[in-house]
Structures are given as C-alpha cells and as structure tokens.
Amino acid sequence: MVHEKNTPGNQVSRRSFLKDGALAAAGFMIVPRHVLGGKGFIAPSDRLRVAGIGVGGKGESDLEEIAKGPSDIAYLCDVDTRRAANSVKRFPKAKFYKDFREMLDKEHKNIDAVTVSTPDHQHAVAAMAAMQLGKHVYVQKPLTHDIYEARMLTEAAKKYKVVTQMGNQGSSGEGVRLLREWYDAGTIGDVHTVYCYTDRPVWPQGIPWSDMKAPVPPELDWDLWLGTAPYKDYIDKLVPFNWRGWWDYGTGALGDMGCHIIEPPFRILGLGSPKSVECSVGSVYVDEFKRGYFPESCPPSSHVILKFEDHKGKEVTLHWMDGGIQPERPEELGSNEVMGDGGNGAIFVGTKGKMMCGTYGRDPKLLPTSRTEQVKVPQKYARVPEGHYVQWVNAAIAGYNSDKNKAISSPFSIAGPLTEALLMANLSIRSFDIRKEENGKTSYPGRYVKLLWDNKNMKVTNFDEANQFVKRTYRQGWSLGV
C-alpha cells in the first residue's frame, strides 16, 4: 500500500500510523461493513460515507451520480484545486485534501468507500491503498495502467472482501443484456469474429515530448500529479486531458474506449485471457521516407488482433481498430444505415448471422436491422434500473456477501481480466516501437511478431523484450504494497 510521500517536511506513512497506539486502537475497534455484511445484514447506517480521489472532470460527474444514491460525499481529494472547484462547491461539507495517502491515514475510520477518478497511472496505488483499509472502491476505466496492477487489484478485492465496480457504465445498460439474450438464444449462432472500433484518440498522439518547460500553475501540485511516473518537467496542455496520449500516464485509445466497446463481446462470449496478440500501427513521417520515432507517445492509430477461447472452448478472433479506422461494412447493413454509433461500435459475426452495437453496448441491432423488431427472445438477465453508480452504492451498503454485490455489473473479478486483455493489446503496440541500435544499424524486433501469452505467469513467451511493459517500476516513494 502506498503511504510514503517523498516531499520533505510532510512525511505521511502507514508505518508511522500503525506505531501510533491510540490511532491503531481506534482503527481496530472499527468493524468494517464487509466483515458484518451478508444476507439479512442491517448496516449501522443506511448511507455510505464516500471519499473521492480525483474530483474534477470525470471525477466530478462520478460523484454527482454517486450522490444520487444513499450516500454522503464526506471527503474530496485532488492535486489540482482548479479542477476540484466545482466539487468543492457542490459538496461544501466535504473536507478537502490534496494527497490521498494523507486523507486515508487521517480519515479512514470515517470513510466507508472510495472513488478513484485520477489519470490512469494512479488508479492502482489509490485503489489498493483504500482496499487494504477495507474500503469499497469504484475505479474509473481502465482499471489500471499495467497488466500486473490489474491482476493485483483483482486478487485484492477478493482478499479484502470489498465491493468493487469499474467505471464502464455500459455494463449496467440494457444493450449488453439484450445482446447477450439474443446470443444465448442462438439467434446468430456461434460468434467466431468480433470487430471493435473507435474514432479515438481525440487528443494529440504520435508526437514528440515538448522540450518547452512551462511554469507549474500554483493550484497544481505537480509532484503529486506525477505520482508513480518518472519525474519530468511540467509542460503546457498535458493537464487535465492530453496525458491520455503519453505512455507514462495514459493508455491511449484502448484505455479510453476499450472498456466501453470490448466489454459487450467479453461478457457475452465469456472471453478471458488472450492466447495471442499482434498489431500494426499508424506512422507519422517527419521527412521523405523518414518515419518519426516517438516512443513516449501512443501511436495515431492501430489495428490489433487478439485470439481468445470463448466459454464453449471455441476460438474467437477480436479485431480492435482506433484512430478512425473501421472494419468493412457488413453486407446485411444498408448503404445509408449507421454502423454502430458512427465513430464507435462492435460487430459480432456468427455462424448464423450478425449483430452490432454502439459505445457502451447501446442501440443493439440484429442484421439486417429489420430483424431487431422481428426477433423476440425471453428476458433472461435482470436489468439495473438504479444505474451503474447507485448499484455500487447499494451493494456497498449491503456488504460483500450480499445478493446485491453478487449481482453487481463490473466487479474487479470481471473488470480485472477485461482490463488485462486491453493492456495485452497495448503491450503489442508498445512492442512494435522497440528500437535497437547494433553495429550502426537500426532494427525494430517487435514488429510483425505475434506475441504468445502465458496468462498464469503473466509473460510473453516468444519475445522477452515485451515483458518490460507488463509491470512498471514506480518512482521512489510509491509502492503497490503487495
């Protein structure tokens, strides 16, 4: 668990907290809900006390949605007071912190659950710190930045018996349930190929890191924002949005949209760990026949092919395309009909037919689209009328062993393996850009290679250089604590 801050004069440490007898005793006397939770359990309070980590932008809207349930937003934490301003105004009774480690050390006994809506590179350390204190967690997508982190959070949720949910709200939607009911009824036969595509990135990618150092805004704690990432000087236009295109902080188009678009086939077909992954990526040329080399930045576009086995043991090929690249329009789709939602979507190709949907599994359709109204199948899966956020709130109040938690849409037991699959695709993309210089010659050994994956040991078996991207080395002062 991360509790060491490397800022002089403000050392916050879990170890020092445990050495404090009075606080340790107080913490011992607080019995977490997850210990008491179970069928028939009546919580000591019918409201969930929530702390938000990262409360601007998406974090702001997350808290707005969570507040619609039986919850109290008790604490706010953000490294940038500019971004936090709206949430501070919306929840004036909530105490504000800049460092989540300090907040958890000082306030853990008054917190039931934590939301994490930071940049990707901070998801795992914040979520793990909360779970190790017995707090239920809601973590924005993608669950983590690295494959190793996803595996560790999945295991931690079970170990600490906390209620978890990833922020891929489409998993609570009508669309994915209807698609699944069509598939289970044999409407399109066995799916053997899936195409997933997005118009992302909608931020700069495939560019060099700026060499123009800029002054750090006074409202931003830059050292805390960097967190686990290597230290770099602050540059303009990285915060609050464009960090997504840099490998130190973000996970590119796959991280941004993959959890929304790949989740339907992942759940419907019962996919797990990929057996193999290969890719091609778009190029940026800086001169005649001179391809730009910007390994710190995600590429402008990519096409990734992942091989899975479905729940029946049959092979499924999943294509991921980003940067506006799209698959061929199905022949059953009219020439003027919208494919997916236009810029994004998923197409399922089965032995007896096809179906498609947009982002979040929305607007599901059988192909040809006239079949959508003609085909009727029984409702098999319960809907989530309260929505993704309030579902988590209610399950957290009910407790880990409750029926409400068993029915939750995107627990880490599902979200973790889904995130690992997405990050396997990114591992292939990053391997494509590995460059070696030997005897004055340049080579790219990771290009045009199909990576074979050993899921149990979390490693690529046929190209060892790719394994450097499975697990990052954190900056000094930061640890996952496992």
Automatic annotation (TrEMBL):
Residue ranges of domain Gfo/Idh/MocA-like oxidoreductase N-terminal in the record: 49-167
Entry GO MF terms: nucleotide binding
A Pfam family this chain is assigned to: GFO_IDH_MocA
Highest taxon of the lineage: Bacteria
Gfo/Idh/MocA-like oxidoreductase bacterial type C-terminal domain location: 213-278
InterPro entries reported for this sequence: Gfo/Idh/MocA-like_OxRdtase_N, Gfo/Idh/MocA_oxidrdct_glycsds, Gfo/Idh/MocA_OxRdtase_bact_C, NAD(P)-bd_dom_sf, TAT_signal
PANTHER family, per the entry: BCDNA.GH03377 (PTHR43818), NADH-DEPENDENT DEHYDROGENASE-RELATED (PTHR43818:SF10)
Protein name: Gfo/Idh/MocA family oxidoreductase
